[in-house]
């Protein structure tokens, strides 16, 4: 009869953290640490072939791989990289430390699924990274919050404190979509705590929003009268590669409140706590009553390479302010702000309207279908740029209106020329214009706006294809406002070519009532030429005042 014997195999065991610690195990001997639930096996002796005497840990379900992965080293196999004080003492970090270098919204439960209400999770991520009481003020805690591609639906304002850095995956990839009339993003001061944004009235220079960076994402709302980005006394911050989109469409009412239906609303608390030195680069602002609005003393803010499309008014500065109060941030109006290298398209009224504020500059911007109330360039109703305040500048700006109203054949008669830039300013246009002149005359060659008390200087180059003549000069056209308005034209030039043709072309100017309403509205410039096949190329500089 067979005998069956069952043997119980036991391994060496004990408490790892009791006594003198883990003992040296014999070759191939198992050791079980009861208190930590860790399993070890003895390496064996060197004489047996073991590389070193000691114990080897065996992984179990109770081991934390993040704690065990302590050997991360930058470019570990690259002998030319020295990360530590010497080549034999490299910097080693845990996997946990390495992964914590980058923070994503997913770390806080943000999935980018449009069906998820991301309001609480997104605000929690921002609060914990930048104003958590344990790390507020710590430079090392100011990580970049990465938001992966997706749609983040929110139902309330997301508050942005100082030192916040948010980076998405790009335009129309990372989308913050609001379904409320509140601001999508709003800056708050450093006194804010998680869940409790501090009011602007409590802001000081040292606590105001600053050093903020938001880039590579879209802000969208489908609710009327909302605000895309609301900056409250924000300074020294950057907003880059952002699309800000609302629900406004051409033909909709432009709000008269000036505080709603605004892509970017910029406020200041006082003369010493203001929105200043902010940079806005490569923004796309579409479908708002107002693209950018400020009725406060904001200073040295820079907008560059932006695209403004389908708006009631592009930029509106100081349109609803009474000057004189330094304490309320309304002493000067917007001051020393720059808008440059940007495109304005399909703007019902003014592309830029500065009612109060000085020393602001529009430079090298392109304006297409602006000021026509939704119509064509042959149907102007507003100026493209309006400077009600003195000492603002339009420099090298480009207007499609100029070509259409100045010398396009279909529009050169019976349509009043409403000026590109209205108000007291010395302006220069960036585009060069070309017209053909034939022999005979007087022939209306081109037109200029008929605003009183202004002077046009046209830097021109005139060449004939039929005879030897080249003429380069300046046409100066001046119109006054006293008594019966009169217009004066002078022509100073240098000439090269056949002397017989030096005076073959003369120019005159006269005031015209193009629409027959008994009010002169346009200056016509006429040519008399004795030679044919002339090409006139010119650029326009304008000097005008608010005195009428």
Structural write-up:
This protein has helices at residues 65-68, 95-100, 119-130, 400-406; strands at 12-14, 30-33, 38-42, 55-58, 103-104, 145-146, 150-154, 158-160, 165-167, 174-178, 183-187, 213-221, 227-232, 238-245, 262-267, 279-294, 302-304, 307-317, 338-340, 343-347, 352-354, 361-363, 366-370, 385-387, 393-399, 421-423, 425-429, 433-437, 440-449, 454-464, 469-479, 487-497, 505-512, 522-529, 534-544. It has 548 residues and is mostly beta strands. The chain has two domains: 107-398, Pectate Lyase C-like; 434-544, Immunoglobulin-like (Sandwich), CATH 2.60.40. It has an eight-stranded parallel barrel with strand order 16-17-19-22-25-23-20-18. A four-stranded mixed β-sheet has the order 1-2-3-4, with no helix packed on it. It has a three-stranded antiparallel β-sheet with strand order 29-34-33, with no helix packed on it. It starts with 11 loop residues before the first strand and ends with a strand.
CATH fold name of the largest domain, please? Pectate Lyase C-like
Annotated CATH architecture of the largest domain: 3 Solenoid
Main sheet record: 8 strands, parallel, barrel
Instruction: Please give the CATH class of the largest domain.
Output: Mainly Beta
The span between the termini is 129 Å
User: Low-confidence segments, ≥5 residues, pLDDT <50?
Assistant: none
Q: Please give the oligomerization state of what you see.
A: single chain
Please give the radius of gyration in angstroms: 36 Å
Shape: elongated
CATH superfamily membership of the largest domain = Single-stranded right-handed beta-helix, Pectin lyase-like
Question: How many separate helices?
Answer: 4
Instruction: Give, in spatial order, the strands making up the sheet with the most strands.
Output: 16-17-19-22-25-23-20-18
């Amino acid at each position: 009869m067979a005998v069956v014997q069952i043997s119980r195999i036991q391994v060496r065991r004990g408490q790892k953290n009791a006594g003198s610690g883990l003992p040296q195990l014999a070759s191939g001997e198992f050791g079980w640490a009861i208190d930590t639930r860790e399993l070890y096996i003895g390496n064996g002796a060197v004489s047996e072939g073991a590389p070193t005497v000691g114990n080897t840990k065996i992984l179990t379900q109770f081991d934390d791989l993040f704690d065990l992965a302590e050997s991360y080293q930058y470019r570990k196999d690259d002998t030319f990289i020295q990360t530590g004080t010497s080549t034999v003492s490299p910097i080693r970090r845990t996997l946990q430390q390495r992964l914590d270098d980058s923070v994503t919204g997913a770390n806080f439960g943000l999935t980018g699924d449009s069906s998820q209400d991301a309001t609480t999770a997104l605000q929690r991520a921002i609060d914990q990274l930048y104003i958590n009481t344990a790390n507020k003020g710590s430079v090392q805690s100011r990580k970049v919050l990465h938001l992966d591609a997706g749609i983040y639906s929110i139902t309330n304002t997301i508050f942005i404190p100082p030192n916040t850095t948010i980076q998405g995956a790009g335009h129309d990839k990372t989308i913050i979509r609001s379904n409320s009339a509140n601001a999508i993003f709003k800056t708050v001061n450093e006194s804010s705590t998680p869940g409790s944004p501090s009011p602007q009235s409590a802001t000081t220079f040292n606590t105001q929003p600053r050093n903020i960076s938001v880039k590579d994402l879209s802000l969208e709302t489908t609710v009327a009268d909302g605000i895309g980005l609301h900056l409250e006394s924000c300074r020294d911050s950057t907003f880059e590669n952002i699309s800000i989109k609302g629900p406004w469409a051409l033909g909709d009412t432009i709000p008269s409140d000036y505080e709603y239906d605004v892509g970017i609303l910029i406020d200041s608390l006082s003369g010493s706590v203001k929105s200043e030195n902010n940079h806005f680069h490569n923004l796309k602002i579409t479908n708002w009553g107002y693209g950018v609005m400020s009725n406060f003393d904001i200073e040295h803010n820079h907008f560059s390479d932006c695209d403004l499309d389908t708006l009631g008014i592009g930029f509106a500065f100081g349109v609803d302010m009474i000057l004189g109060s330094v304490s309320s941030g309304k002493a000067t109006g917007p001051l020393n702000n720059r808008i440059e290298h940007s495109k304005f398209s399909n703007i019902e009224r003014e592309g830029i309207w500065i009612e109060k504020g000085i020393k602001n500059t529009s430079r090298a911007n392109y304006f297409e279908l602006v000021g026509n109330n939704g119509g064509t360039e042959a149907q102007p109703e507003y100026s493209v740029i309006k400077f009600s305040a003195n000492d603002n500048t339009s420099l090298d700006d480009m207007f499609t209106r100029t070509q259409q109203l100045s010398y396009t054949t279909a529009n050169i008669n019976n349509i009043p020329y409403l000026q590109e830039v209205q108000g007291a300013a010395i302006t220069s246009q960036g585009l060069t214009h070309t017209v053909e002149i034939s022999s005979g005359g007087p022939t209306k060659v081109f037109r200029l706006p008929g605003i009183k008390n202004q002077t046009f200087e046209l830097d021109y180059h005139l060449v004939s294809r039929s005879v030897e003549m080249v003429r380069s000069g300046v046409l100066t056209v001046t119109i006054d406002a006293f008594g019966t308005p009169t217009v004066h034209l002078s022509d100073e030039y240098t000439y090269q070519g056949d002397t017989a043709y030096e005076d073959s072309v003369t120019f005159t100017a006269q005031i015209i009532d193009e629409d027959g309403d008994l009010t002169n509205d346009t200056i016509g410039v006429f040519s008399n030429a004795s030679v044919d096949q002339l090409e006139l190329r010119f650029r326009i500089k304008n000097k005008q005042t608010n005195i009428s």
